[in-house]
Structure formats: structure tokens, C-alpha cells
Specification:
The complex is a heterodimer of chains A (419) and B (399). Chain A has 419 residues and is α/β, with parallel strands linked by helices. Helices cover 53% and strands 11% of the residues of chain A. Chain A has a seven-stranded mixed β-sheet with strand order 3-2-1-4-6-5-7, with helices on both faces. In chain A, strand 2 (83-90), helix 3 (96-106) and strand 3 form a beta-alpha-beta unit. In chain A, helix 1 (2-35) crosses helix 6 (180-202) and helix 9 crosses helix 14. Chain B has helices spanning 17-42, 62-76, and strands at 83-88, 92-98, 101-103, 108-109, 112-115, 119-121, 126-127, 131-133, 137-139, 144-150, 154-156, 161-168, 172-174, 183-186, 190-192, 197-208, 256-260, 265-267, 276-279, 283-287, 294-297, 301-303, 308-309, 313-315, 319-321, 326-327, 331-333, 337-339, 344-345, 349-351, 355-357, 362-363, 370-374, 377-380, 385-398. The chains are: A alpha/beta (419), B mainly beta (399). At the A-B interface, helix 6, helix 7 and strand 7 of A face helix 1, strand 33 and strand 35 of B.
């Protein structure tokens, strides 16, 4: 029994410490964004000799959105002889094929890849498309995205820095006004990009390549083995593989692109479960190599570890609830002097719980949109929702390893009406 | 406060009114933020997506082109007659349309000027609104301007203050100690004399002068009312400044070899199309064979005089490029970049701190647009020649 109590106490202290570490992390990003030196991105570079690029747009039953993204891609400001677009029709059964063929007939630089055989899913599609791509740089947009005229140039220009292996732009939800969920997701996205990603770029840490509104070097991605079709977050894997091999990932805050957020809580649940499961898969693969690599300094390794573990934190918190209850009913909550516990808990509740909120608030302030901050209290429900489904995803990833099973790729449901 | 429990036959404890008040107040305080949030949901004040300019694309002549388009839509296409008018640009503005325009010294003009021919202003004039010139332009000494667009060549004399931008489809010559506001750019040659200050500049090329104007200028001076006649057609530049640009040395003539304090490690070498190396400590090159790869340094990087590098370089501290170096790639640094005299750099120069371009240095070459970008300052010494774009978030200055 004493051993059990010791383990429970140890777990409680461990949980408090780890939450404290993430509190410090969130606050340091927020303070950097407000008070720190803001590092330049490369979008101001003017170059008459741009690299050849290939734009990939994975699609599976995207007839509702395909026209919008392809129409925008016909308007981008990039030399016509220096880019091509490969929409990847991945086992679609709706009108996607006809739409792509229609665009290909009118625009010679649009070269659809129709995949009716072979493995399904975005990683498979990207791997096949890379074999056909003639560009040195690959830029990826999801099918529901609406790129602006100059975004492709802004993304591609960073590869003039030979150490850059991948770049991530900023995602901005377009359907913000649909319902409460989309409004909350808009704030969440703002916090994640305007503050979190930008701060990591400023502090030369580990900005993340997100798999869309971003790009990477084709030869590097192929050298690293392409995209793993059994990972649900191939973008996170690419991020860490690049850093482990000495390349860098940069964040382009000014490369903004509209996306469509989930409008349904069940769709959001599946999305976040998938992200959590995939991220945890990457964590299990990359944790030890991250600690051992010689290409990263101490600061980068610390940030990398915290980034890898971030989707485990809700699981840690959920496990902490019964642990705390057990300690309470065993009368063993006196971990240290009560006053210190009180101070610690009070401080954490004052600052720690609000650390992500400060990020969101800072992002909204920087964006010049402050009325939407009135929705912040509703993030309490979002928090509970996220804890539940992120924990589910993380637990599934561990089960995948134990049961030696491969997860199936799932596409996010679209809500836009066909244009 | 006390909670009393009745010992009588009552089943439930009696809670005192003070406790009830505390609970009610606590509940209200917890609910208030949610009520504000619910109100915002039901009556949204701020639910539109963040604005993205879908048509924006990086263009060093953006301001001028945008102004030209506005002028074309609202004055030229509408055939606004000569004289004073009210025209709608982004809002209703007073404008003066003339065949040619002379602004006397010490004038103060508070309307947009659209000049179908040549323009000139005397010294100490103030032009508070934009000026559009279809002919040649000459801005007198110590003028204050908001912005000027010129379809041909334009001369801005010394000690002027431009609050927004200067843009030309021809050549531009900026006199000494002129403050250039947000941007100066042209499709031709951009000459800037000592003491000029700017945020961004674009020229093909941009040439830093030592204060002596080598081109002759015929003064433009005729009364404003004499619109139909001009004395002579006049040119701002009799001849272009001759630029002594020499091509980079051929590989092998003088070169350098990489010699470092510690062993350089190869990063993803050989199997990649472009491989490169990283030095963990201070890196210095020494003369020898040309370097034919990209490399990076975590500490200071010194490219010794006479080096030839066929690759890009990156440093997490300062980069010092000594005189007479030739670099065929791009330069990226977290610290300062100091380019010595007579260097030839054919790629971009990008610093998270400041950039210093030495006397006679050449950045890029004819027909190839490259950029110098700095978070803090860009300082350019005389006779430096840059084919392309300069942006300093702090300030750019011609020394």
C-alpha cells in the first residue's frame, strides 16, 4: 500500500511539474510575441530567377471545393514556365475527376494525377505525385483551401536559404461565422499560428510543417523516404525528420491562406483524434532520435521534446483525476506542506490555466480583432472536449503499437456548397 | 457564518442566509463571462474571417503602380479636363490637371497634381499630395513631397523630404541627404547621393554616389501660365553614369579553401542534389582553390580576401566578407553582414540584423534581380552597385 501511495504521489507531483513546464512554454511564446525580437521571414526577397515548383492538391471526393482552389491557382503570380499544378484525384467516386480534366483541358500547367489503384490516403498520393513532379520545390494545398495571388511566391522564396527544408504558412478559417464551433476554432488557429508558430520561428526553435499551405524540397523528402502511409500526420513526421538531419523548418506568417474549419462537433472530434493519434505515432518514433541527434542545440531539443509530448498532456491530466481522488480518499494528499500546495495550485489556476488563453488573446490583439475575445470563456468547454478526444487519439496510438495495427486514413468532411 | 443542523425531526440541514448569498454571488461571478460570450454568439460583432488581400503579390514598385492605376481609372479614362477639379481617387480629392507644371519656390500646394508633360519645382516648395508626371520631373532643393510618380526620368535635388514614395518608369537621381519615406523605385537606373535615407529601394541598378553629380542637368524653368510652349525639351541626364562593373573572376584564378578550427560535418551529404557543410565554431576561409559547396557556421564566419565561393553561405552570428571576394550564391545571417570593398556577390544578402556594403561592391549583375534585406540597417558606401531591391526594416542609408 505504501508503494501504491508513493507512486500516486509521484504521479501527482510529476503532473504538476509537467503542467508548469508547459505553462512556462506558453507564456514565453506570448511574451516573445509581444516584447521580443520578431525575426524576419523571407517574403520580401525579390528574385528574377525563381525556383521551379510543383503545387500538389490532394483530393478525395472534393467536387464541392475543387473548382475554387484550382481557379485560384490559375491566378497566382508566378512565372508560368516555372510552375505546374498536380491535383491528386485519390480514388474519388464523385465528380472530382471531371472537374480536374476540365481544368487540365484549359490550362496546360494543370496535370491531374488520377489514382484508382494502389494505397489510399494523402501520403500515398503525395508520394506518387512527387515521382511525376518536375519542380524542385513542392508546395501543398488541401482541396478546401483558397490561396491568394502572391502566396505561392512567398512560400517558395524561403528555399533560397539552402538550410531550409520545409516551410509552413498561416491558416485562416474562412467559415468563421458558421456557428460557435467555427468561431472558437478561428481563435484557436490564431493563437496557434500568430503566436505559437511565430514565436518558435523567432526563437529559432521547432516551427512545425503542417502539411498544407506549406512546402518542402522534393529531393530532400524523397531522400528521407517520402511520406509514411501508415502515419496519420505525415507532416509532423517530415518536420522532425528534417530537423534530425540538420535541415530547418521556417514559418511564414505573412503567407496566409483561407481554409474551411469543421462545422460539426463530431467532425472536429474525428479530426483532433486523428491529429493526436498521428502526432503520438511520430512521438514514439522520433523521441529517442531527437535526444541523440547532433544537429540540434539544447534549446531546440527541449522545444522538440515539448512539441512531441504535447498531445500526451491531456492524457496525463485525465489519469491525474482518479489519482488525485485516490490520494484524497486515502488521506494522502499532504504531498508537502499544505501552504505550498495551496500556493502552487492557486498560482497554476491563476496563470497556468490561462496560458493558452493569453496566446489567443495576444493573437487577436495583434490581428486587430478584439471583440471576438468575448468568446474566451467558452474555451472551457472546448478544453474539456479537446482533453477527451486528444486523450482518445493518444491512447489509440499506444494501442496501435501494442497491437501492431495500422490506422486508416480519414478525410475531413467538407461543408462548403459546390460553387 | 455558521451552518446549523437542526436536531429536530427535520430531514435536511438548514443553511444560513449568508451562505446562500455567497453561493449566489459566486454563481453570478462565474456566469458573467459566459453571459458576455453568449451575447457575442447571439449578436455577433466580430465574426467575419480575418482579411486577406487575395490580389496582393510582392512588387517593389507596388505603391507607384497602384497610384498609376488609380490615376488611369479616375482621371485619364474619365477625360478630366485641365484646370482644377474634384476627382475621386480613394476619396474625393482636389486635383489640378495641367500640360506642364512649374511650382515656384516656397509654394505650398495641397492638391493632387496631374501633369501631362514636364514638371519642376523651385526650392523649399511643399507638395502635400501626390504628384503624377507624364513627362520629366525635377524636384527642387529642400522640397517636401508626399509622393511622386514619373513616367520618364526624375531628378530630386538635395535635402528633400518625401513622406511616402518616389516611383519612376525611367531613371531616378536622388540628391544628397534626401529622406525618401517608405520607398523609392524605378525601372531604370537609381542614383542616390550621400546621406540619402530610405526604407526600401529598387533600381536596375541602384548606384551609390559620392555626392558629385556626374550627369549634366539642364534646368527647367518656365512660367506656369506658359503651358503650350516650352523652351527646349530637356533631359535630366545627358548621359548615364558609367558604371565600372566587372564580371566575376573565373574560377581557379584566385580561390579559397575551407579551414576550420574543428571538423566540419557533412549534413545529409552526397545523396542529396545539393549538399552542404556546417561548422560548429568560428569559420575562416583561406586563399586556395575555389569552394564549390554551400556551408554554414554556427559562430562568426569570415570570408578572407580573394576567396571565390560557388555556393551559398549561412551564419548564426556575423559574417565578414573581406575585400575582393566573389560569391556566386546567397548569404543569410542571423547577425550582421559586412561586405568589404570591391566584393562581387551574385546572390541575395539577408540579415536578421544589419548589412554594410563597402565601397565599390557589386551585388548581382545586369538582368538578374537580387535583394538586400535587413532587419535593422542597410548602409551602402559610395560607388556600390546593386541590381535589385533593398529593404531595411530600420533604415537604409547611403554613406
Amino acid at each position: 500500500m505504501e508503494l501504491v501511495v508513493l507512486i500516486l504521489r509521484f504521479y501527482t507531483v510529476f503532473e504538476i511539474l509537467i503542467l508548469l513546464v508547459y505553462t512556462i512554454r506558453h507564456f514565453s511564446f506570448t511574451f516573445n510575441r509581444i516584447f521580443g525580437e520578431q525575426r524576419l521571414y523571407y517574403q520580401d526577397i525579390v528574385d528574377s530567377d525563381l525556383d521551379k515548383i510543383t503545387i500538389l492538391v490532394p483530393m478525395h471526393n472534393e467536387e464541392a471545393v475543387a473548382k475554387d482552389v484550382l481557379t485560384q491557382l490559375t491566378r497566382i503570380d508566378y512565372p508560368r514556365d516555372k510552375f505546374e499544378v498536380i491535383p491528386i484525384n485519390d480514388h474519388s467516386v464523385d465528380g472530382t475527376r471531371e472537374i480536374l480534366d476540365g481544368f487540365a483541358a484549359r490550362y496546360p500547367f494543370i496535370k491531374p494525377l488520377h489514382r484508382d489503384t494502389g494505397g489510399r490516403g494523402k501520403p500515398h498520393g503525395l508520394n506518387d505525385a512527387m515521382e511525376l513532379a518536375t519542380g524542385e520545390i513542392i508546395i501543398v494545398f488541401d482541396a478546401d483551401y483558397i490561396p491568394s495571388k502572391g502566396i505561392v511566391r512567398d512560400i517558395a522564396i524561403c528555399f533560397k536559404d539552402q538550410q531550409v527544408g520545409a516551410v509552413m504558412g498561416r491558416v485562416i478559417p474562412k467559415n468563421t461565422d458558421a456557428n460557435m464551433l467555427t468561431r472558437l476554432l478561428d481563435l484557436e488557429r490564431s493563437g496557434g499560428y500568430q503566436v505559437d508558430q511565430q514565436a518558435r520561428h523567432n526563437m529559432i526553435m521547432i516551427p512545425q510543417y503542417g502539411g498544407t499551405v506549406g512546402g518542402f524540397r522534393k529531393d530532400v523528402a524523397q531522400y528521407l523516404g517520402g511520406f509514411n502511409p501508415y502515419l496519420l500526420t505525415e507532416d509532423t513526421e517530415l518536420t522532425f525528420l528534417l530537423f534530425l538531419k540538420g535541415w530547418k523548418v521556417v514559418y511564414a506568417n505573412k503567407a496566409e491562406c483561407y481554409e474551411e474549419s469543421p462545422e460539426d462537433w463530431s467532425v472536429r472530434a474525428r479530426q483532433i483524434t486523428r491529429w493526436s493519434r498521428g502526432h503520438t505515432q511520430v512521438m514514439l518514433k522520433s523521441f529517442i532520435p531527437l535526444l541523440r541527434t547532433g544537429h540540434l542545440n539544447f534549446k531546440e531539443k527541449v522545444d522538440g521534446v515539448l512539441l512531441l509530448l504535447i498531445y500526451l498532456i491531456p492524457l496525463v491530466m485525465i489519469i491525474g483525476i482518479p489519482v488525485s481522488l485516490m490520494l484524497f480518499f486515502l488521506g494522502q494528499m499532504n504531498l508537502i506542506d499544505f501552504i505550498f500546495i495551496f500556493i502552487l495550485v492557486a498560482a497554476y489556476n491563476s496563470f497556468g490555466n490561462f496560458a493558452p488563453f493569453y496566446q489567443i488573446g495576444t493573437a487577436a490583439y495583434i490581428d486587430g480583432v478584439t471583440d471576438r475575445l468575448k468568446l474566451l470563456p467558452l474555451f472551457f468547454f472546448c478544453f474539456l472536449f479537446n482533453v477527451l478526444y486528444i486523450s482518445k487519439g493518444a491512447a489509440s496510438a499506444f494501442l496501435d503499437v501494442l497491437l501492431n495495427r495500422n490506422p486508416e486514413w480519414q478525410k475531413t468532411t467538407r461543408f462548403r456548397k459546390q460553387s | 457564518m455558521d451552518v446549523s443542523v437542526s436536531t429536530s425531526s427535520q430531514a435536511f440541514p438548514v443553511i444560513s442566509w449568508e451562505v446562500v448569498v455567497v453561493i449566489v454571488v459566486f454563481a453570478i461571478m462565474v456566469l458573467i463571462p459566459f453571459m458576455i460570450a453568449i451575447k457575442e454568439l447571439l449578436d455577433p460583432k466580430d465574426n467575419k474571417p480575418l482579411y486577406i488581400d487575395m490580389l496582393h503579390s510582392k512588387d517593389p514598385l507596388y505603391f507607384g503602380k497602384k497610384f498609376k492605376k488609380i490615376i488611369a481609372e479616375n482621371i485619364e479614362n474619365k477625360g478630366v479636363p485641365e484646370g482644377n477639379s474634384e476627382v475621386f481617387l480613394n476619396k474625393m480629392e482636389s486635383a489640378e490637371i495641367s500640360i506642364a507644371k512649374w511650382v515656384p519656390p516656397y509654394s505650398n500646394i495641397d492638391k493632387i497634381l496631374y501633369v501631362k508633360g514636364d514638371f519642376a519645382s523651385g526650392e523649399n516648395a511643399a507638395l502635400r499630395k501626390e504628384v503624377y508626371i507624364k513627362g520629366y520631373g525635377k524636384v527642387g532643393k529642400r522640397n517636401i513631397l508626399r509622393a511622386v510618380y514619373c513616367e520618364k526620368d526624375i531628378l530630386v535635388e538635395r535635402d528633400c523630404r518625401i513622406s511616402r514614395w518616389v516611383c519612376s518608369e525611367g531613371n531616378v537621381h536622388i540628391g544628397a541627404r534626401t529622406h525618401l519615406g517608405r520607398s523609392v523605385g524605378c525601372k531604370g537606373n537609381l542614383f542616390m547621393e550621400t546621406g540619402c535615407r530610405f526604407k526600401s529601394a529598387f533600381g536596375l541598378p541602384l548606384v551609390a554616389l559620392n555626392g558629385k553629380r556626374t550627369a549634366k542637368v539642364q534646368p527647367f524653368d518656365y512660367p506656369e501660365r506658359d503651358k503650350a510652349k516650352r523652351r527646349d525639351e530637356w533631359k535630366i541626364f545627358q548621359k548615364h553614369l558609367s558604371v565600372n562593373w566587372t564580371p566575376p573572376r573565373k574560377p581557379g584564378s584566385e580561390g579559397s579553401e575551407l579551414q576550420v578550427d574543428t571538423e566540419m560535418e557533412e549534413v545529409a551529404a552526397n545523396k542529396l542534389a545539393k549538399h552542404w557543410k556546417v561548422g560548429e565554431n568560428r569559420v575562416e576561409t583561406v586563399p586556395g582553390e575555389p569552394i564549390r559547396y554551400n556551408f554554414a557556421a554556427r559562430r562568426e564566419l569570415v570570408i578572407k580576401s580573394g576567396s571565390v565561393i560557388h555556393g551559398s553561405i549561412k551564419c548564426y552570428k556575423d559574417i565578414i566578407i573581406e575585400p575582393d571576394t566573389v560569391l556566386h550564391g546567397d548569404i543569410f545571417a542571423e547577425g550582421n553582414i559586412k561586405v568589404g570593398p570591391d566584393c562581387v556577390l551574385l546572390g541575395h544578402v539577408f540579415s536578421q540584423s544589419s548589412v554594410f556594403i563597402g565601397t565599390g561592391a557589386r551585388i548581382s549583375s545586369p538582368g538578374n534581380v537580387r535583394s538586400i534585406i535587413a532587419k535593422r540597417r542597410v548602409e551602402i558606401d559610395k560607388h556600390a552597385v546593386i541590381y535589385g531591391y533593398i529593404l531595411a526594416e530600420g533604415e537604409g542609408v547611403i554613406r
